[in-house]
Design brief:
Distance between the termini: 67 Å
Largest sheet: none
Radius of gyration: 23 Å
Number of strands: 0
Helix content: 55-70%
Strand content: under 5%
Order of helices and strands: HHHHHHHH
Structural class: mainly alpha
């Protein structure tokens, strides 16, 4: 027996918005999401393999812990030692795992510009302090400069 097709007139949205604490919890799962994506619904790396990698790296993290992390069921932020194990288990750089943990557990927002030279960071910081209209004017000037370069070629 086939299920009826969804009604085109059916409203699938909630009648009222989600409470702020639920939205925050849904948005704050960066580290959990990283573990889920590595596992990819059992098509990727198994939680046991993650645990084995962590153990081999000298920073044991159990299979159940990886499973709990994947479901966003770990209430307290992982210790520095455990973060090393998670990084080894996921084969990700420790800095990326730390940042994901900070986002998930400390409500951290990245503001630095890693990988850019000092001049670029100063320019971006200067632009960030401008109003919307002033930033728009600078954007148009940069785009005009790019067009002029193309015309010169």
């Amino acid at each position: 027996m086939e299920a009826p097709a969804p009604s085109a007139n059916r409203n699938n949205t909630s009648p009222e918005p989600l409470p702020d604490h639920l939205v925050r919890d849904m948005d704050r799962d960066a580290l959990s999401r990283m573990v889920r994506e590595a596992n990819d619904d059992s098509r990727g790396v198994s939680y046991q393999t993650m645990a084995d990698r962590a153990e081999a790296a000298g920073h044991p993290v159990s299979k159940p812990y990886f499973q709990k992390m994947a479901t966003n069921s770990v209430a307290a932020a992982p210790t520095a030692e455990r973060l090393r194990g998670i990084a080894a288990g996921l084969q990700k750089p420790l800095s990326i795992v730390k940042r994901a943990a900070a986002i998930q557990y400390l409500d951290y927002e990245a503001t630095e510009l890693a990988g850019y030279d000092e001049d670029t960071r100063v320019i971006v910081a200067h632009l960030a302090g401008m109003g919307k209209n002033e930033r728009r004017r600078w954007k148009k000037m940069m785009e005009a400069d790019e067009l002029a370069k193309r015309d010169d070629e």
